[in-house]
Amino acid sequence: MYSSFWIYQQWASFLFNRIHKFKLIQSLSYDKDSIFLYFNSGSDNFTLELKFIGGELFLVQSDKIASDSKTKGQFQFKHIDGATVTDVGTRIFDRLIYIEFNNGWKLWLKGFGRFGNVLLQNPNTETAESIFRLNIKADWDQNIHEWDNYKLSLLNNRIIVPDQNIIDITFWNTMVRSEE
């Protein structure tokens, strides 16, 4: 049940509150099944481990810091090193989380069961610029630009729909919070 859209929405909300306006210092992998994303804002550090077990994506908050490792890792997603997180969100009723950066690039965390992956989207192309799990060939051809439809932006409390209409969900959020 870990790979449900509800869990991904909860993670997106947590990540937005935790890393919004943080810089991505670096993304490193030490093996083929995990990648560490190191974020920093002043003296506040946050590390997100993306771990693949049986192909399924698990997100884990880690206490590992970038200068911590004795082994040399492989750098990933260099286009977003040093970029600041401007938004974190999810695609409605889907197992996708995106992290958007101030340079326009997006990192998509795809939790499609055993086909989980991490994809880097160039703002000027429709397909992935870089992917983490290279063995999933279909990810190279996936039009990830389409994933921008029906996405929930936690920065703006809005859902983006295909015809470019925007649905404001502020009212819905107030209703949900008032029931707590």
Can you describe this structure?
By secondary structure, the protein is an alpha+beta fold. The protein is built from 3 helices and 13 strands, in the order αββββββββββαβββα. The strands form 2 sheets. It has an 8-stranded antiparallel β-sheet. Strands 4-3-2-1-5 form a 5-stranded antiparallel β-sheet, covered by helices on one side. The longest helix has 15 residues. It starts with a helix and ends with a helix.
The portion of residues assigned to helices is 10-25%
Pattern of helices and strands = HEEEEEEEEEEHEEEH
**Main structural class:** alpha+beta
Query: What percent of residues are in strands?
Result: 35-45%
Low-confidence stretches: 171-180
The main sheet orders its strands as: 10-9-8-7-6-11-12-13
Taking all residues together, what is the mean pLDDT? 78
Q: Helical region count?
A: 3
C-alpha geometry: globular
Question: How large is the radius of gyration?
Answer: 16 Å
Number of strands: 13
Largest sheet data: 8 strands, antiparallel
State the end-to-end distance.
Answer: 24 Å
Briefly, what is this?
Helix content is 16%, strand content 41%.
Keywords:
disordered C terminus, 8-stranded antiparallel β-sheet, 5-stranded antiparallel β-sheet, 180 residues, alpha+beta
Indicate the topology.
Layout: H1 5-19, E1 23-31, E2 34-41, E3 44-53, E4 56-62, E5 74-76, E6 85-91, E7 96-101, E8 106-110, E9 117-121, E10 128-131, H2 138-141, E11 151-153, E12 158-160, E13 166-168, H3 170-178
Antiparallel strand pairs: 1-2, 1-5, 2-3, 3-4, 6-7, 6-11, 7-8, 8-9, 9-10, 11-12, 12-13
